[in-house]
C-alpha cells in the first residue's frame, strides 16, 4: 500500500480552515497537524478534524519527521520568515499569497526553493477552475485567434464602511499594499496563466476611500466578517481600498483591470474578458460553471461545466457530471491535487503557481505601488 503524505497547516483563520478541509478531501494525503498561537485552540481543532498533532510552536512542527508538507496560512507579514524556515527544514511548502511582503524577500525565497529540490507552491487557486482551464486550452490552441485586449477585475465589498476594520489594514501585518496584493494579484496570476504571457509594465491609480477607520479596541475581526461594535479607536489607513491599472503583456497585448474592496454587493467578483481576433471569452468567479464565448458573425455561446464537453485537461478539473455545480472549494482541491502529485513524483508536470510565479507577481505588485506613487508607467 502506498504511504500517505502527511501534511500540516500553520494558522487557524479563514484560509487555514479552507486548506484543512480541502486536505481532508485529497486522496493519498493525510491532514496530520495544526499550529495555532493558542495550544488550546490547536488541540480543539485537532480533536474536531482528527489530526494527530497540535502545536503552538512552529519549530516543534518543523522538527517532526512525520510531516512532509506544510501549508503556510498565516498573516502576510509572516509569510517570508515561515516559508524560509519550512524550506530550510526540508519540507515541501504551499504558501498563501502573497509569497512575501515585497519582491526582495520573494527573490530570496525563490533562490532557496530552487536550491532545496523541494516542491514549492503559492495559493493562486483561481487558475484551477474547469472553465478557466478550458479558456486557457482553447486560447493556446488558437481557437479564436490571437488575444489583443484583456479586461476585468476583482471586486468585493467587505471594506465598504469606515466601521469595517481588519488586520489586513495594518501595514505591519499585511504590508504596504492591500487590495492589489490580496486580490489584484489573483487577477494578474489568472490572466497571465490563461494567455501564457507575463505582464511587463503597468500604470496605476490607487485610492483610499476611508483614510480613517474604526478599529475595535479588542482584537480586530476576521477577514470577510464585520465584528465591529462597542469601543473603538480611529486609526489612519495607508493601504488602498481600490485601484485602476493599465497593463501591457510581453507580446504587446494591452489590458486593464480594477480592484475594489468597497463595491457594495460584490462579494468575490473576479472576472475577465479576453478579446481575440475571432471572438472572446468571458468568465465570472461568482458564476464559475459558465464560460461565455462571444462571436461577431454568429450566435454567442454559453458553455456549461460538463466534463463530457470539455477538453481533456479542463475535464480533469471537473469532479462531478454536468449539472452538478462545483465552486471555490473544488478549485482549491484541484490546486492541491496538482501540488501533491508533484510531491509524490517530482517529474510530474503541473500547472499550480510556484515560488517563481509568486515572486513575479510580487514584482507586479511592487511596480503597481510605485506607478501609482509616481503617476507614470513602470516596468515590472
In terms of DSSP E residues, the strand content is 25-35%
Mean pLDDT reading: 95
Integer tally of domains: 2
Low-confidence stretches: none
Q: What is Rg? A: 21 Å
Structural class, by secondary structure, is alpha/beta
Number of strands: 17
Number of helices: 11
Order of helices and strands, N to C? EHEHEHEHEHEHEHHEEEEEEEEEHHHE
Under CATH, the topology of the largest domain is which? Dihydrodipicolinate Reductase, domain 2
Helix proportion: 25-40%
The biggest beta sheet reads:
9 strands, mixed
**Strand adjacency order, main sheet:** 16-15-14-13-7-12-11-8-17
Gross geometry? globular
| CATH fourth-tier homologous superfamily of the largest domain | Dihydrodipicolinate Reductase, domain 2
CATH architecture of the largest domain: 2-Layer Sandwich
Q: For the record, what CATH class of the largest domain applies?
A: Alpha Beta
Distance between the termini: 48 Å
Structure overview:
The protein has helices spanning 14-23, 39-49, 58-62, 79-88, 103-116, 130-140, 171-174, 179-195, 312-315, 328-344, 355-374; strands at 5-10, 29-35, 53-55, 69-72, 92-95, 120-122, 147-155, 199-207, 212-216, 232-236, 242-249, 254-260, 269-276, 279-284, 290-294, 301-304, 378-379. It is of the alpha/beta class and 380 residues long. It has 11 helices and 17 strands. The radius of gyration is 21 Å and the shape is globular. Helix 4 packs parallel to helix 5 and helix 5 runs antiparallel to helix 11 (355-374). The protein folds into 2 domains: 5-125, NAD(P)-binding Rossmann-like Domain (Rossmann fold, 3-Layer(aba) Sandwich); 128-379, 2-Layer Sandwich (Dihydrodipicolinate Reductase, domain 2), CATH 3.30.360.
Amino acid at each position: 500500500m502506498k504511504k500517505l503524505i502527511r501534511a500540516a497547516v500553520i494558522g487557524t483563520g479563514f484560509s487555514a480552515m479552507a486548506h484543512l478541509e480541502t486536505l481532508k478531501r485529497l486522496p493519498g494525503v493525510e491532514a496530520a497537524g495544526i499550529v495555532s498561537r493558542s495550544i488550546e485552540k490547536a488541540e480543539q481543532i485537532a480533536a474536531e478534524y482528527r489530526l494527530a498533532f497540535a502545536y503552538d510552536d512552529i519549530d516543534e512542527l518543523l522538527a517532526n519527521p512525520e510531516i512532509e508538507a506544510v501549508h503556510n496560512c498565516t498573516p502576510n507579514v509572516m509569510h517570508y520568515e515561515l516559508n524560509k524556515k519550512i524550506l530550510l527544514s526540508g519540507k515541501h511548502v504551499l504558501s498563501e499569497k502573497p509569497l512575501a511582503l515585497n519582491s526582495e524577500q520573494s527573490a530570496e525565497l525563490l533562490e532557496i526553493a530552487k536550491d532545496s529540490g523541494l516542491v514549492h507552491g503559492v495559493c493562486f487557486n483561481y487558475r484551477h477552475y474547469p472553465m478557466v482551464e478550458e479558456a486557457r486550452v482553447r486560447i493556446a490552441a488558437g481557437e479564436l485567434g490571437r488575444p489583443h485586449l484583456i479586461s476585468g477585475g476583482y471586486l468585493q465589498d467587505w471594506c465598504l464602511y469606515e466601521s469595517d476594520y481588519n488586520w489586513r489594514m495594518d501595514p505591519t501585518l499585511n504590508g504596504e499594499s492591500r487590495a492589489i496584493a490580496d486580490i489584484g494579484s489573483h487577477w494578474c496570476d489568472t490572466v497571465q496563466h490563461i494567455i501564457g504571457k507575463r505582464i511587463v509594465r503597468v500604470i496605476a491609480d490607487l485610492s483610499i476611500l476611508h483614510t480613517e477607520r474604526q478599529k475595535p479596541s479588542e482584537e480586530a475581526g476576521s477577514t470577510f466578517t464585520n465584528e465591529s461594535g462597542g469601543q473603538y479607536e480611529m486609526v489612519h489607513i495607508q493601504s488602498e481600498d481600490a485601484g485602476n491599472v493599465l497593463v501591457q503583456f510581453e507580446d504587446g497585448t494591452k489590458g486593464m483591470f480594477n480592484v475594489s474592496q468597497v463595491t457594495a454587493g460584490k462579494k468575490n467578483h473576479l472576472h475577465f474578458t479576453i478579446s481575440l481576433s475571432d471572438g472572446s471569452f468571458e468568465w465570472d468567479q461568482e458564476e464559475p460553471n459558465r464560460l461565455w464565448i462571444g462571436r461577431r458573425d454568429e450566435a454567442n455561446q454559453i458553455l456549461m461545466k460538463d466534463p463530457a464537453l470539455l477538453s481533456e485537461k479542463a475535464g480533469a478539473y471537473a469532479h462531478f457530471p454536468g449539472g452538478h455545480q462545483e465552486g471555490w472549494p473544488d478549485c482549491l482541491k484541484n490546486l492541491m491535487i496538482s501540488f501533491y502529485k508533484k510531491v509524490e513524483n517530482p517529474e510530474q508536470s503541473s500547472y499550480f503557481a510556484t515560488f517563481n510565479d509568486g515572486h513575479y507577481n510580487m514584482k507586479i505588485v511592487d511596480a503597481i505601488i510605485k506607478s501609482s506613487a509616481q503617476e507614470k508607467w513602470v516596468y515590472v
